[in-house]
Amino acid sequence: MILQVLLRNKFVQVISLVFLWGLNACTVNMGDVLEQNKLPDMYPDYSDVTIPYNIAPLNFKIKGEPKQVVAVIKSENGTELRVSGDDVRIPIKKWKRLLEENKGKELEVKVYACWNDGWKGYPVFHWNISTRAIDPYLTYRLIEPGYFTVNRMGLYYRNIENFEEKAMVDNYPADMGCVNCHAFCQGDPNRMLFHARDKNPGTYLYADGKLVKLNTKAGPMKWPAVYPFWHPDGNYVAFSINPLRLNFYSGKEAVKELYDLQADVMVYDVKTRTVLTTPQLYDEKVHNNYPVFSPDGKKLFYCTDSLPEGDPKITTPELKLSLCAVDFDATTGKLGNQIDTLVSSDKTGKSIIHPRISPDGKYVVYTQLDYGSFYYYKAAELGIYNIETGEHRLLNEVNSSEMEGYHSWSSGGGWLVFSSQRFDGYYSLPWFTFIDEQGNASKPFVLPQENPDHYTFMVQAYNVPELLKKPIPIGMYDIMEAAESKALPSQFVMQQ
Q1: Distance (Å, rounded) from C-alpha 449 to C-alpha 341?
Q2: Is 97 helix (H, G, I), strand (E, B) or coil?
Q3: Contact residues for 251 (Cβ-Cβ < 8 A; gap 6+)
Q4: Calpha distance 11→214 (Å, rounded)
Q5: What does the alpha-carbon distance between residue 398 and residue 400 come to, in Å, rounded to a whole number?
Q6: Is there a contact between 265 and 239 (Cβ–Cβ < 8 Å)?
Q7: How confident is the chain (496 residues) per 10-residue block, as mean pLDDT?
Q8: What is the CA radius of gyration of the chain?
Q9: Residue 402: which of 427, 384, 383, 385 has the closest Cα?
Q10: What 3-state class would DSSP assign to 9?
C-alpha cells in the first residue's frame, strides 16, 4: 500500500513537471516571439472579412497542430479580448458585447501560435463590423453529396447568432422520401412550404396557422410543381414544372450531369388552389424555369430558351437560358403577355439560372453556367444584374474555382447567403457576403461553427440555404400528422 502511494505521488510529480514545462514553453513572451511576414494557415479563413453585428463567434484553428494558439482581439477604443487554447473559440457573451459596442467599426486581430521551435506572431488582420444585421436564422437541407442516396436527409434551421440547430423534418422518422424545395415568404416562416417525394408525396404548405398537403399536379400537367418562390403578399407562389434527370459519363474521371427534360412556369393561387399560366410560359417547345417575383410583386422574373431540336439530354450544351420578366397583377392573378429580355444568352454566350432579387429591387444575383439549367458544375458562378442600368457582370470577388450555386437575400437587404463547394469541390456549404449599394461584394465567409473542425468531419452537404426572420413554428409531429392526410387537389387555368 505504501509503495502504491509513493508510486502514485511520483507519477503525479512527473505529470506536474511535464505540465509546468509545457506551460512555460507556451507562455507568450513578447521578446521571444518570432514575427512572421504572412498570415497563418487558418481554418476556416476569417481574415479581413465584413460581418454582421449579430453573427456567431468566428471560431477558427491554425493548421499544423500548434501546441497553443492565442488570439488578441482589439477594438478601436482599446478594449481587448484574449482567447487561448488548442484553437480559437471565442466566448459568446463577450463576443456579442464586443460586436454590439463596435458596430460600423473594425476589430484588430493578432494571432500567436506556439510550435516546437517556439512562439510565432502573425500579421494583424481585421474584422469589419457592419451596422446592417442579417436575418438571425438559416434553413437548409442536410443531404449526402452527389447522387448516392436519399434514404436519410432532413430540413434544418440554425440560429446563426449562436450555434443552436433544430430539425424541422427528418425524412426517416417522418416516413418520407426526398424532402426539398423549402421556401418562405420574404423570410417569414409563418408562410412557408416544402415538397416531399416518393413517400407521402405532396407540397406541404403552412399559412394562416394551418398546415396542409397539396397535390399541385392539375389539368395537363405531367409533373407536380417545383422550385417555389412566394409573392410578397403571401397569396401566390411561383413554381416551375420540370422532371430532373441524371446522366453519367465515363472517362479519366466520373462525370455526372443534371438536367431538366423540359420546364414550364406557373403561378399558384394559394387561396383557390389554382394553377395559373399562359401559352408563353407553358410551352413544350420552350424551356421556362426558375420563376421569382419582384419585391413589389408587379413582375415575374424567370429564365428561358427555346428547346434545341432532338433529344434534350444529348443536345444540352445548346440550351442557354436568358433572364426575362413579365408583368403580374396580384389583384386579379393575371400574367402579362409582353416578355422583356433583361440578360440575353445570345450576348453572354452563357446560361443564366436561379435569379434572386434584392429587397430594394435594385439588383438580381444569378448563377451563370456554360450551358444547361442546373448549377451542379464547377463552372457555375455568381453574377449580378443592375435592374436600373441594365449592366451585368460576374461577382468575381465572390466566385471561386469550384461551384457557386443556390443563394438568397436577407430580408433587410445587403447580406447574401450562397452555396459553394470551394473547400473540397464536393461538399456544398453556406457562405455569406455583403453587397453594397454599388453592387460590390465583400470577401465571403463560411457559416461559423462552435468547433472549428466541424466541416472537416461533416458527412452531409448544406443544400439550398434560405435566411429567416424567426424560428419555424411547426415541427416533426405537425408534419407527420399532415403526411397522413389526403393531398388536396388543384385546378388548372390557362390564361389568354
Answers
A1: 42
A2: helix
A3: none
A4: 69
A5: 7
A6: yes
A7: 39 32 53 91 98 98 96 95 97 97 97 95 98 98 69 88 93 74 95 88 94 95 92 97 64 57 92 97 93 98 87 74 98 96 95 97 96 80 97 97 94 97 92 97 98 93 95 92 93 95
A8: 26
A9: 427
A10: helix
Find cell 512562439 and name the residue. 119
What cell was used for 173? Answer: 422518422
Q: Do residues 430 and 138 touch, judged by C-beta distance below 8 A?
A: yes
Q: Are 174 and 483 in contact (CB under 8 A)?
A: yes
**Which amino acid makes up residue 65?**
E
Sheet architecture: strand order including 188-196: 179-185, 188-196, 202-207, 210-214
Burial status of residue 13 (CB atoms within 10 A of its CB: 0-12, 13-18, 19 or more): exposed
* Nearest-angstrom CA–CA distance, 30 and 396: 40
Verdict on whether the full-model pTM lies above 0.85: yes
Using DSSP bridges, classify how beta strands 49-52 and 334-335 pair: parallel, antiparallel or unpaired: unpaired
Does residue 250 sit in helix, strand or coil? coil
Q: Which of 112, 110, 108, 111 is nearest to 128 (CA)?
A: 108
Residues 6+ apart with CB under 8 A from 296: 232, 361
Q: Mind listing the pLDDT tens digit for each residue in 373-382?
A: 887 667 899 9
DSSP 378-430: TT-EEEEEETTT--EEE-TTT--SS-EEEEEE-TTSSEEEEEE-TTTSS--EE
Residues in the chain: 496
3-state secondary structure of 5: helix
Q: Quick check: 72 and 80 in contact, CB under 8 A?
A: yes
The DSSP line for 197-218 is -SSS-EEEEEETTEEEEE----
- Cβ proximity of 289 and 228 under 8 Å: no
Amino acid in position 143: I
Sequence-ordered list of residues with C-beta below 8 angstroms from that of 157, at least 6 positions apart, any chain = 137, 138, 139, 140, 165, 166, 168, 468, 471, 472
